[in-house]
Amino acid sequence: MVPERPLVIVGLSGGVDSSVAALRLLEAGxxxxxxxxxxxxxxxxxxxxxxDYQDARSVCEELDIPLHRVSFxxxxxxxxxxxxxxxxxxxxxxxxxxxxxxxxxFRHFLHHARRLGADWIATGHYARVMHTATGARLLTAxxxxxxxxxxxxAIDPEALACTxxxxxELTKPEVRRIAEDAGFRTARxxxxxxxxxIGERDFNAFLTRYLPTQPGIxxxxxxxxxGTHQGLMFYTLGQRKGLGLGGSRTGTDSPWYVLDKDLAxxxxxxxxxxxHPRLLSTTLWTERPHWLVPDPTPERLNLQAKVRYxxxxxxxxxxxxxxxxxxDFDHPQWAVTPGQSVVFYAQEQCLGGAVIRDRRSLxxxxxxxxxxx
Length: 373
Hints:
This protein has helices spanning 16-27, 49-63, 73-89, 96-115, 149-152, 157-160, 172-182, 203-208; strands at residues 7-11, 31-38, 67-71, 120-122, 128-132, 135-139, 163-164, 216-219, 225-229, 257-262, 267-271, 280-286, 290-291, 302-306, 314-321, 324-334, 341-346, 349-361. By secondary structure, the protein is of the alpha+beta class. Strand 8 and strand 9 (225-229) form a beta hairpin. It is globular, with a radius of gyration of 22 Å. The chain folds into three domains: 7-182, HUPs (Rossmann fold, 3-Layer(aba) Sandwich), CATH 3.40.50; 213-271, Adenine nucleotide alpha hydrolases-like domains (SH3 type barrels); 278-361, Elongation Factor Tu (Ef-tu), domain 3. The termini are far apart. The longest helix is centred in the first third of the chain and has 20 residues, at 96-115. Helices cover 24% and strands 28% of the residues. The record marks 125, 340 as: Interaction with tRNA. ATP binds at residues 11-18, 37, 124. The active site is at residues 100, 196.
């Protein structure tokens, strides 16, 4: 008797990456079925879920595999979108894609796939996973320019243990060529960018639908008033556009950057030097970390870390402090932003990460919080 092939449920988004992921799994001998997730419901949204669903269905017809669909819109609004709003209201800059992966794509999706009888789940993320007797290891993709482990660091280790990433060894051009050869109508489809529930709409206008604006003054690091801001939630550290400032009173025409936020006084602090000491930090503190491996902090390992997606991993040291981590970098990091995530690596393995709580900029003689006690 021939044993049954393992069933893999692939999260099909209607894009080229998940389309090729499904194809590669079929070619590898798995029994494959697709699942399309509706995660956002808003008539004013530019997220064309109906079009994406039709693209996913077209791919499944080409591959002759079933396509399931499910709505996680209520879960997304409660567990991702509300967090997004709360963080902006608190003056921080969140990354909803990280939370969406943890809560929706690798938790609710996994539970639903298991109800469908799945042995594995798979997505079109650019990452690799090594399944070993001691657990799954999340590894960076072969295409370092497309590597998405930064966005995957917060998923549950139990979910990683039953996940496949069929694109981990491919580059984006290779994925598009495979899709072209297969005749997928998604082959030349434009990659999705930005946050789906905002789409191409004006970001500030979108936020004002949900949060009250609190205009205030814009000052330089010496406290001199330069103008007004629309509300601290509309700005992030290192931001250059949208400040409405020309040359300075000192006569230089250099561009202005957001250096800091004074939340207590509702002031936006700006300066003209991209490498201003207020934008450079060697130390940051985090919320409670999430690890994909046994907690490495007792060993005080020398690791590498990223404070943004496309950054090259930087040398650092970590230690537990105040319920989170203190991270000290070998070299100053630019625009370390509370609300974003710091993600840790040991060579090609992603170990986990944490949300950034605070930072010490180079022009601060003392920490911004009591972290050296």
